[in-house]
C-alpha cells in the first residue's frame, strides 16, 4: 500500500508543499486526458487509498469525496481535450495537464512527485516514480481524483452521445466501442489522431 515515505523525506527538511501528480485517460480513443495534483498534510491517513486502478469504482467515489472535502488537503485537476491532444500529441498533452494542475494549486509548491518518468522542461523540481500511485500516498490521491474527475466527464458525454456507451468503457477501445465506431463513425470527442479512429476517415457526427 502507498504511504508517506517519499513525502516524509521532504517534510523532514521543512518542505511541506509536496505535490503528488498523476493522470488518467492517456489511452482512450475519446475524451480528454485528466491530471490531478494533491498536497497532503504530514501524517495524513486514509484507509484504502491506493492506485485508482486497484480500487472499485464505488470506493473511488468515496475516496474522492473524502480527499476533496478534507480541509487540510490541497488539490486541483486539469483537462486537456481531444482537439489539443490531436494537435500536440498525447504525451505533450498529458504533461500540459500535469503542469496546469500543479499551477492551479495556487500555492508555492516545493517539490512534485510524479507517477512515471520525469517530465522534460517541467517548471517545478520533481521526481518521477515508476509505479508511484502504488507507493506514494499523495500520488495515489492524485490518481483517484484524476480518474473520478475524468469518469464523471465521460458519463456526461455518454448522455450527449448515447450510441457509444461511454459510461461503460470511458472511451477506451473495447469491442463495444469499436463496434459503435464502425456503425456510427467518430463523434465530436473522438481523438482523430488515434488509431483506429484515424483509419475510419468518416465525417464528424454532430448528432
What is the secondary structure topology, with strand pairs?
Blueprint: H1 5-11, E1 18-24, E2 33-39, H2 57-69, E3 74-80, H3 82-88, H4 90-104, E4 111-115, E5 126-129, H5 137-160, H6 166-169, H7 175-184, H8 197-200
Parallel strand pairs: 1-4, 4-5
Antiparallel strand pairs: 1-2, 2-3
Description:
- The radius of gyration is 18 Å and the shape is globular.
- It has helices spanning 5-11, 57-69, 82-88, 90-104, 137-160, 166-169, 175-184, 197-200, and strands at residues 18-24, 33-39, 74-80, 111-115, 126-129.
- The chain has 207 residues and is an alpha/beta fold.
- Strand 1 (18-24) and strand 2 (33-39) form a beta hairpin.
Portion in beta strands: 5-15%
CATH topology descriptor? Nucleotidyltransferase, domain 5
Q: Spans of 5+ residues with little confidence (pLDDT < 50)?
A: 202-207
Derived from helix and strand composition plus strand pairing, the structural class reads alpha/beta
Strand/helix succession: HEEHEHHEEHHHH
**CATH superfamily descriptor:** Ribonuclease H-like superfamily/Ribonuclease H
- N-to-C span: 45 Å
CATH class: Alpha Beta
Structurally, how many domains make up the residues? 1
CATH architecture: 2-Layer Sandwich
- Name the shape in a single word: globular
Radius of gyration: 18 Å
Number of strands: 5
Number of helices: 8
